[in-house]
Each structure stands twice: as C-alpha cells, then as structure tokens.
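Q&A log
Question type: sequence-to-structure
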Amino acid sequence: MLEVVKMVFKDMRAYLKRLEEEGELIRVKEQIENGLEISAFMWELWDRMGEKAPAVMFENVKGYNIPVVTGLLSSYRRYALGLGMQNWKTAGYKEVKDYLLSLWEKTNEWKKPNVVPKEEAPCKEVILDGEEATLDKFPILRWHPQDGQEGRCLTPGWEGRFITWPCVIQYDKAWNSYNIGTYRIMLQDNKTLTIMSQRLQHIGIYIARAKAAGIKRYPTAIAIGPCPTLMMASGMKMPHPGLSEYNFAGALMGEPIDVVKCETADLLVPATAEIIIEGEILLDQPPLTEGPFVEYQGYVGSGLETPPFKVTCITHRKDPIYVAATSGHKYSESNFAYVPWLALQLQDYAKKTVNGFRDLSIPLEGRGFVAVVQIEKRNPGWGKQATRTILGSGYGTALLNMAIAVDEDVNIYDNGEIMWAVATRVDPELDVEIFHPAATAPLNPAGRSIIRDPRTGLPEYAMCSKIGIDATLKFATEAERTRDTPPVARPDPKAIEKIRKNWDKYFPPK
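Response status: OK
Response body:
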C-alpha cells in the first residue's frame, strides 16, 4: 500500500490549484456553445489520451459567466492525489482501492464534521432567497443528445438539463445521521428539480423513512464543488445508511469536514462548497417524470418517476466554479466514482466469507457489473463457492451481472490475464453457472424488465439473471473430470532471477 502524508485539500480550489501545477488540469478559453460540446470534447480527449487525459476547465461557456470544470477524478492519479497519497503519480486502481479499504474498516477513526459559523463559510459569500433563488444562473446543461425527452420537463425547451456531480444531503433524526449521495438531478424549471431516488439507494431509504414518519416536505440540500474527499465519499454507499459520508470523508482527508447550517433548512452543508442549493422534496405531491440520461455504463438510462424538489434558497461563492461529470465513456469520472466503492464493499464482505480469499477487482471496462475474485484454491469446489458467495451478497445481488473466480497466479488487474484464465481453465458445461433473475438496479442495461414497487407505485427495480464463471485450475476430482488442469508454463526460476538481477546490463547506455 502506498505511504500517505498529510496533504489536505480543504476545498475544491486548493485541489484545482495543485492539479494545474502538476499539469493535471488544462484551461479552455475558446467559447464552448453548450454541454453537448463539453461532452464531445471530453470523449475525444479520452479517446486520444485515455487515463492520461487531464481534467479540463472550460472558462467561456456561452450564456454564463461561471466556468465549468470536468474530468476531475477520471484517473486514479488524480483520485490518489485528492486522497493525499504520497506517490499519487504512480498510483493505480489497486493502490487507491486498498487505501480506501484501510480506512473503511476503521469506523472508529472516522471524523465527525466540524460546524463553523456562517462568517467563516465561503459558500455563504452570496445568499439568494425568495424570487432571486433561481437555477438559470448556473450552467445546468444538456450533456448528451439522448438526454431528456419532449414533454418530460415543466419548462418546454429545457428537457435533458442535468446536474451531474451533486452531493445530495439529507438527515434522518432517528439515526442521527446524514446521507450524502451522488444522484442524477434534472432541471424542471427555475425553482424545481427532480432527484433520481430508488429504494436500492440510500436516498430512497431516507425518503421512505421520512414518508413513514409522516413528513410531507423533506429538507434536502445539494452541494456542488465541495472538497475532493467529500465528492469521493458521496459516490460511495456506507456500510449502513445510518453511517455518514461526512465522517468517512473526514477520515479520507485526515481532519473533519467543515460544515455550516443552511439558511432555510435544519441541515448542515459543506462550508467550502462552490454552490449550495437548499430546498424540500415534496412527498405529498405527485411524482414527476425525468430522464432519460446517458449513464456511467455507456447506455441511455431510462426515464424514471421521482418526487419534485422545490428550491428555497441558493448560496454560493462570489465567483463560483461549476463542477460537473461527463458520463458514458469508459474514462468518465462517473465510472471512476462508482468502481472503487463497489470493489471495497465486495472485498470487505469477501474477506469474511470466501474460502481462500486473496483479492477482488471490479474491472473499469465492466462498468461495475463484473467482479473478479482471486483465491488460493486448496480444495475442489472453492472456485464456485467464491462466485456464488459474491453474487449472493447484498451488493452482488443488487448490482453485479457476472462473477469470475481465478487463482493466485492470475493478475486480476490485467484484463488479458483474466481472459487467458477464462479461455483456458473453463469447461463451459461444468464451470459456468446461470442463476435465476433477481432484482437489480433499474439502470442495469442487461435487465429484462422494470418492476414497479407496490409500496410506492414507482419504477424501482430491473430483473436480471447472473452468471458465475469458475476460471480456477481444476482438480481431477471436481465434477465429471478425470484429469487435473495441465501445469502452467513458467520460465526456470533460477534463470529468471538471474535475468532480473542483471537486467540493466543487457541494455548498456549508447
């Protein structure tokens, strides 16, 4: 695991400054017409540069005097830098995941937020209430041509405008805990938004508990551009909805997150955020239809129904920066925000339940639907036990479509090695299991149907079967086999040790 030093970014601006100093952020001064051009720019940048692409600040977006920054966490380098990891330039997926896991398991070291007075909160530099609190001041844009649909917006012509990297903040009195989550939010009119909220998400759990408690107007706030660790934590699901992302983000940063009280709601919001939108979710009003929207998996996510959010106040810095995520591409930050937390959740579970467990990976290319579990296979059947256990876990059932088990000799962070194991160690008739359909996230593009929850009447689930692939080396005693998997080819150990020791000698300087 990478060594960590005290490198704290208490707000987004300190992080942006460091990114620019390191060549990890570029500025585009040429006028950008709209969100479609920003999305197209980022896709082309990722196609050309992959994970080496920098984050981008668009300084001149037509119709707005607010810059838009995107691509912030679309590389594990920048993710590691935001975490304060010393060797962030060489950090990859495994290093980031293992560091997150090391803090995830130590809930006693999570840090409660620090409440600061209004005068010390940059997010309070400008306060807009009443008729002044309108959303058209901010570059809430349409990012993809498939976003939105005619008639699915209270304001004709505004279809498909989304806030794409919010931190949605809610409080549950019984749990005495905050939920901070990242969910797509569609603009309906100058005072109305719709926040995607299913029961499989913690926001859905909080809303269901509020309705059960008889709450008709549920106080909710939306933060845009807080410190990087809160943005990371917001994309994760806590082990229990009663554990707060504020506390985990504080552990990631190494000190408590500064928070301040809202103007119109009894909520604490990140004090250093660029923009805060305060409001209420109207639980006594009919739901509104939102979407569709291009999602992290690279497909158009279907439109859903969700209760309206009414704006009561907006506060922001004097010169706010609008932070957004561009989704759909393999290297978009929505993919990077999703994959690490799912991996650490499943790994935390697998360590306690999978025989011979060694490691677990969620390949970026699998968009969160494929898990690869590495085991030390000491007995027949352990490969299938691993895939069944992963797929049968809470998150496995809700989110995965496929689990693959491999041996210790397979590098689970190398897709080529995974494919080699699948191609050479799997007898499809004996080593592949298909499991009956189960309820999964409604945005799962492989799902065969959308199910409405009878408690809410809203579309909440998709149904999808699952596949487990045992790509481990086999014993002759497994299933119907009469032979072991042949020995794996490897170079002579003494020869390879000598070659490695003398490697530089074979390439003398010219």
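Response note: The chain has a mean pLDDT of 92.
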